[in-house]
Amino acid sequence: MSKQELAVIGQDTDGDCCGRLASAPLDDERAAELAKVFKALGDPVRLRLLSMIASREGGEVCVCEMTPAFDLSQPTISHHLKLLRQAGLIDCERRGTWVYYWVLPGALDRLAGFLTTPQAGQVPA
Q1: Is the residue at 10 inside a domain?
Q2: Whole-number pLDDT of residue 6
Q3: How far is CA 80 from CA 21, 22, 46, 71, 117, in A?
Q4: The whole model's pTM is what?
Q5: 3-state DSSP call for residue 5?
Q6: How many domains does the chain have?
Q7: 3-state SS, residue 64
């Protein structure tokens, strides 16, 4: 796997992609996969981009609407969006000259589920 390729989490078929952080120690492979996703989220620009996309009414946003919110060039914004796509958090579609982005269904829920610890008295999932 090159430095530019990030594994898409939660794409397996058994429905329990990640388990929970507190349920069992991660093996080396799983830790490496999740670290790549968290690395993609570890940049303030990418975190803001993801937030802009996820909070958008209708579920998708054009890159032309996101770029003015940053003091960065359009190619830099596109690079950050590419890293979020490679991490399996968002996807996109070109429509004419513009590209529209949306959060992949379940991507944020899988991360939230991984980070959630069971409440007292609850059996871990």
Answers
A1: no
A2: 43
A3: 27, 30, 6, 13, 30
A4: 0.74
A5: coil
A6: 1
A7: helix
